[in-house]
Specification:
By secondary structure, the chain is an alpha+beta fold. It has 16 helices and 23 strands.
Length: about 425
């Protein structure tokens, strides 16, 4: 018998498989396109399900005895669907700039302090409810036609099982979940003008949604008896995947640098104590490199080349022996091919603003952390995960600026999926 973890990320999804003893066996990955512009950041949600079916089918072919799959996802992003779960629009990512005015309206109605008291969050347009309000105001035909509103975790769970449920940790990312009542805030939904009945049922983290549907079994090759579990927001899963024992009453600081955002969270007793997100991550690094090369060398390069530069000579710290790389692109003025030589020091300068913002976010969370947990973090160190954590010297920069030992975990890009697969075992120990 095998268990699997399914990590729904911003730019791709992973399925990781473990044996009965919790030993890692294998993983599959599938990316999907994200559209970014000045006016909006969107993802075609149907491609997410295509990716899910693809990675699960790949693992099911190799391990036909998968008995259960835990599902975790990035937060905030939602999609309105018809009664069959078919998306009615491309989904706005949490990095999308729309929803600012709607967030201000909510804040003015409730007051920032009361909103924070209900939701545990500082009001921000990145969360789901302001963007739902934006769609209702600007695309009323979509809202009126919507039978359901899903975040990504419950969207995937619904398509695999036919059951609409969302775990508490993902529900909090809407800025419409009452953390004291552990249910949707009817007051917030009423003021927002969004029908709370369109939302999935909120359930404790780790709730079994039941066996997969016949259709899902056919698409994935999984046994019809395979169960699906709503796990958690990816921050907790990342901590577990990194080897952090989240069940103990100790403070653990995890920094997850993904593609679209960097998420910083203090975790204790299997829950998030304090957290923050900043819209600066791997994609930001690439854009900063693009801009620097264009401005300082008069060279147009593509995102793929920016990614290669980041991997080959990217750095967050000064190097005693800077590395170099020849880069080919198109001359900004003539449009003709052009080659320049870049140094790692140049890339450090290009990334300085972005890396500093991440460090400042970490520093801000440390300042908000209760003293007893802060002392634990000083003793235990900071854990760095996510693809963006692989930027050379990122851990050193955080350590230098905070004075707290910082370690980038092995296989940083897969820790969320790994943690999702291990979650059931961890929570069973925690509950016991």
């Amino acid at each position: 018998m095998k268990i699997a973890g399914l990590d729904i990320g911003t730019t791709g999804c992973k399925c990781t498989v473990f044996d009965e003893q919790g030993r890692y066996l294998n993983k599959a990955y599938k990316d999907y396109p994200v559209r970014r512009s000045v006016s909006g950041h969107e993802v075609d949600v149907s491609t997410i399900m295509d990716g899910v079916y693809a990675v699960v089918a790949e693992m099911a072919k190799e391990y036909p005895d998968i008995a259960g799959i835990g599902v975790t996802s990035f937060g905030e992003t939602f999609v309105m669907t018809d009664e069959n779960g078919k998306p009615l629009h491309t989904a706005m990512l949490y990095t999308d700039p729309r929803g600012e005015e709607e967030c201000k309206a909510l804040t003015e109605k409730f007051g920032a302090r009361e909103l924070a008291g209900i939701t545990g969050l500082r009001a921000h347009q990145m969360y789901s409810i302001p963007k739902m309000m934006w769609i209702k105001k600007n695309r009323p035909e979509i809202y009126d036609a919507a039978a359901y509103i899903f975040l990504m975790e419950d969207y995937v769970v619904y398509h695999l099982t036919g059951k609409r449920q969302i775990d508490y940790s993902l529900a909090t990312r809407t800025m419409a979940f009452d953390i004291k009542k552990l249910d949707w805030s009817k007051e917030i939904f009423e003021v927002a003008g969004i029908d709370v009945n369109k939302m999935s049922k909120t359930v404790p983290t780790g709730t079994d949604a039941g066996a997969i549907t016949a259709e899902a079994a056919e698409k994935t090759g999984l046994a019809p008896s395979t169960h699906i579990v709503s796990i958690s927001h990816d921050q907790v899963s990342a901590a577990i995947g990194a080897g952090v024992d989240v069940t103990k009453p100790f403070g653990n600081l995890v920094v997850d640098i993904g593609a679209g955002t960097s998420d910083v969270a203090v975790i204790s007793l299997a829950g998030v104590v304090v957290s923050a997100s900043v819209k600066v991550a791997g994609d930001t690094f690439n854009q900063a490199i693009l801009n620097y090369v264009r401005k300082n060398h008069g060279l147009f390069i593509g995102e793929d080349m920016a990614e290669k530069i980041k991997i080959q000579i990217g750095t967050a710290i000064e190097e005693s022996n800077p590395r170099t790389m020849e880069v080919k692109g198109r001359n900004v003025i003539t449009g003709l091919p052009k080659t320049v030589t870049l140094t790692s020091e140049e890339i450090r300068v290009a990334l300085k603003d972005a890396t500093s913002q991440i460090v400042e976010t970490v520093h801000g969370i440390l300042e908000k952390t209760p003293p007893e947990l802060a002392a634990d973090i000083v003793d235990r160190g900071i854990v760095l995960t996510g693809g963006g954590a692989l930027l050379h010297g990122m851990d050193t920069l955080i350590e230098q600026r905070t004075g707290v030992s910082t370690l980038t975990v092995q296989d940083a890009m897969s820790v969320v999926a790994v943690g999702t697969g291990k979650y059931a075992e961890v929570m069973a120990r925690f509950d016991g």
